[in-house]
Design brief:
about 230 residues, mainly beta, 7-stranded antiparallel beta sheet, 1 helix, about 0% helix, about 55% strand
C-alpha cells in the first residue's frame, strides 16, 4: 500500500527569513493524521535567506539529519563542533541526553535550501554525538546510495535507529529498484524534480508512506533528487 503525502497539503510557515514546509506535525503546525511515520518524526523542507538562521537552541533524544540541496548551512554545537554543510553532505546529530546548537545560512548573498529530518532513537539518554560525511554525485547518479544506517556500513553516517537512508539522483530514463524485506516499511521523499513510484507520479515536495509492498521502483521523469527511508 502506498499513501501519498501531497506537497500542497503540508504544513507551512513563512517567517520572512524562513520559509518551511512540514510533512509532519511540527511547532505550531499540528495534524493528528500526520504525526510521523514509523520512527520518522519530522521532514521539514527549509529555505533560509542569506545570513539568517536558527539561534542556539536545545534538543534531546532525537536523531537529527540535515541534507542540504542548495547553498551552505553553518552548524555549531555544545560539543565544540563547527562545520559547514554543503550539497552532497549528510549530517547526523544525536541529541541524546541533551545538546544545544545553532544553524545559520553560511552565505551573506545566497539562500540555503535543506531538508531537516528527525528520527526517533532506539534508546533515550545516549551520549550526544555528531557525524558528517560527503557523498559525490557519481555515487548517487542512477543508483541508490546508502547515506545513513544503524551500523554505519558502506561509509554511511550512523543513525541510532533501525533505518536505512538512501539518496539517489535520477534523470529522465533512469530507474532504481529497492527490495523491502517482509515486515519493513518505507518513506519516499522527493527533494526536487519528478519521479514515478511504482507507476505513480510524485512531484517535488511529495512524500509517500509504503507498507505491505515487496519492492519499490523509482523512475526518473524530470531530473530528480530523492531520499528513501527503509524503516522497521
Amino acid at each position: 500500500m502506498i499513501t501519498i503525502r501531497n506537497r500542497d497539503e503540508r504544513g507551512a510557515v513563512n517567517m520572512g527569513w524562513l520559509n518551511s514546509k512540514h510533512s509532519f506535525s511540527f511547532g505550531h503546525y499540528y495534524d493528528p493524521a500526520h504525526m510521523g511515520f514509523r520512527a520518522l518524526r519530522v521532514i521539514n523542507d527549509d529555505r533560509v535567506i542569506p545570513g539568517a538562521g536558527f539561534p542556539t537552541h536545545g534538543h534531546a533524544d532525537m536523531e537529527i539529519v540535515s541534507y542540504v540541496l542548495d547553498g551552505a548551512l553553518e552548524h555549531k554545537d555544545t560539543l565544540g563542533t563547527s562545520s559547514v554543510i554543503r550539497p552532497g553532505d549528510v549530517q547526523r546529530m544525536s541529541a541524546g541526553s541533551g545538546i544545544r546548537h545553532s544553524e545559520y545560512n553560511a552565505s551573506k548573498k545566497d539562500p540555503v535550501h535543506f531538508l531537516q529530518i528527525w528520527i526517533l532513537p532506539n534508546e533515550e539518554g545516549m551520549v550526544p554525538g555528531y557525524e558528517q560525511k560527503a557523498f559525490e554525485r557519481e555515487e548517487k547518479q542512477g543508483r541508490l546510495r546508502l547515506v545513513g544506517s544503524q551500523d554505519g556500513r558502506d561509509g554511511s553516517v550512523t543513525i541510532h535507529q533501525d533505518v536505512d537512508l538512501y539518496a539517489t539522483l535520477l534523470d529522465e530514463g533512469d530507474s532504481v529498484t529497492h527490495e523491502l524485506r517482509p515486515g519493513r516499511h518505507a518513506w519516499v521523499q522527493v527533494a526536487r524534480g519528478q519521479v514515478r513510484l511504482n507507476g505513480t507520479v510524485l512531484k517535488e515536495g511529495d512524500g509517500a508512506a509504503i507498507s505491505n509492498e515487496s519492492a519499490l521502483t523509482l523512475d526518473g521523469v524530470v531530473s530528480a533528487e530523492v531520499l528513501l527511508f527503509d524503516l522497521a
